[in-house]
């Protein structure tokens, strides 16, 4: 089973990756894609969670990647 969605004609303005350190490894736990008028928040774990919102999600993990 699966689902899908489409975001049409949107420019990705910023990508931020979050995660944590586990011994000598950096573990990426979530990514925020900032588009023109919304955010796509992708979080890993037992399940992959994808949220689309008009407000920037609050993430407690450390910032690893910012472009």
Provide a quick synopsis of the model.
The chain is mainly β. Helix content is 0%, strand content 55%. The protein has no helices and five strands.
What fraction, in percent, of the residue positions are helical?
A: under 10%
Main sheet: which strands, in order across?
4-3-2-1-5
Report low-confidence residues grouped into runs of 5 or more.
none
Average pLDDT confidence is 84
Main pleated-sheet profile: 5 strands, antiparallel
The rough form would be described as globular
- The beta-strand count equals 5
Beta content: over 45%
User: SS-based structural class?
Assistant: mainly beta
Order of helices and strands, N to C? EEEEE
- Rounded to an integer in angstroms, the radius of gyration calculated over CA atoms is 13 Å
Total DSSP helices: 0
Q: Ends: how far apart? A: 33 Å
Explain how this protein is built.
The chain is mostly beta strands. The protein has a domain at 12-56. 0% of the residues lie in helices and 55% in strands. It contains no helices and five strands. A five-stranded antiparallel beta sheet has the order 4-3-2-1-5, with no helix packed on it. Strand 1 (12-22) and strand 2 (25-35) form a beta hairpin. The protein is globular, with a radius of gyration of 13 Å.
Set down the secondary structure blueprint.
Elements: E1 12-22, E2 25-35, E3 39-43, E4 49-53, E5 62-66
Antiparallel strand pairs: 1-2, 1-5, 2-3, 3-4
Which terms would index this structure?
about 70 residues; mainly beta; five-stranded antiparallel beta sheet; about 0% helix
């Amino acid at each position: 089973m699966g689902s899908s969605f489409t975001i049409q004609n949107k420019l990705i303005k910023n990508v931020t990756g979050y995660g944590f350190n586990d011994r000598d490894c950096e573990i990426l736990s979530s990514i925020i894609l900032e588009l023109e008028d919304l955010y796509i928040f992708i979080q890993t774990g037992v399940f992959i969670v994808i949220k689309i919102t008009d407000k920037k999600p609050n993430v407690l993990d450390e910032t690893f990647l910012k472009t």
